[in-house]
User: What shape does this take?
Amino acid sequence: MFDLTGKKALVTGSSQGIGFTVAKYLSEHGAKVFVHGGMSCEKTCGAAEKIGNAVPVTVDLFDGACDEKLYAVTGDIDILVLNASVQYRKAWDEITDEEFYKQIDVNIRASLKLIQKYAPHMKEHRWGRIVTVGSVQQQKPHKDMLVYAATKAAQLNMVINLAKQLAPFGITVNNVAPGVIATPRNADALADKEYAAKVMSGIPMGYAGEAVDCAAQILLLCSDEGRYMTGEDIYIDGGMKL
Assistant: This one.
């Protein structure tokens, strides 16, 4: 099951956390994976070395030509996992223009540009997998991450829109929405025991998820076993959205 032999995959933001584990899972099931990092070449190369059958690529998604620069390294691919995102924790009335546009730029614009770049090959070969990594904040926005939550809701709308348009070409487009996952991004916040206890009290299952919880679902969506799922929004949140 989940045989991806012969497939090429790009996972954005895969030098750590959910993205790294997704890249590892795809590689272990036969795919050639491009491990992407935004800034640190050393960190990205180190992640690729840990995975095997992986190629590092460092491109800043703030760059207006990020799609062309990534494509120059990857060429055509079969699987696109849009995991990279920018997140600022700040009260809604303190958000600066720069913080607003950086989140919009990476979380929406870059995602669209990469889909525009890689979808033509998928359409031509009548097989493709596009998975975006959203957030439980689509349903339950954090008061100090207004713009981030809004971009994830917008990304989901894009998924639903594209899923219907690309389905006739054998391309599935889906979104997974993690809740609280124990990754480096959340490490500092969860290190505060009082804050962590408050967060866990809002999760029916009572604990934070792991990156593997997300990677396993994404592996299914990227495989032939997930071929009849498209336009879906799958929450991996321990019931947090309820």
Residues 97-125 form the longest helix (29 residues). Helices lie at 17-28, 41-51, 66-74, 97-125, 146-166, 184-191, 193-201, 211-222. The beta strands are 8-11, 32-37, 54-58, 79-82, 128-133, 171-178, 233-236. The mean pLDDT is 95.
